[in-house]
Amino acid sequence: MNQETAVAYGAENMAREFDMPIIAGSNLKGARGQYKVIFTLTSGNHCKLKQGEITKGFTKQWEEDILSTTQYLL
Fold first, then answer.
1. Helix or strand or coil: residue 59?
2. Is a pLDDT exceeding 70 seen at residue 44?
3. What whole-number distance in Å separates Cα of residue 45 and Cα of residue 63?
4. % the chain with pLDDT above 70
5. Beta-bridge partners for 57
6. Do 12 and 52 contact (CB within 8 A), yes or no?
């Protein structure tokens, strides 16, 4: 949101330690009372990425999700 934010690197560290992919979900509002979740693979080959790149990727996705659905936040 155009400002520095503290994040925990737990998911990224666990993905590296256990060699598992990170999957992120985006909520989309459909008709009244109906929601859809779209799952995307954030990182499949995380061994080649530097520390922090995975977390930066999914926080950027969260930011895009928040900015695209601001009418539902308050």
1. helix
2. no
3. 23
4. 91
5. none
6. yes
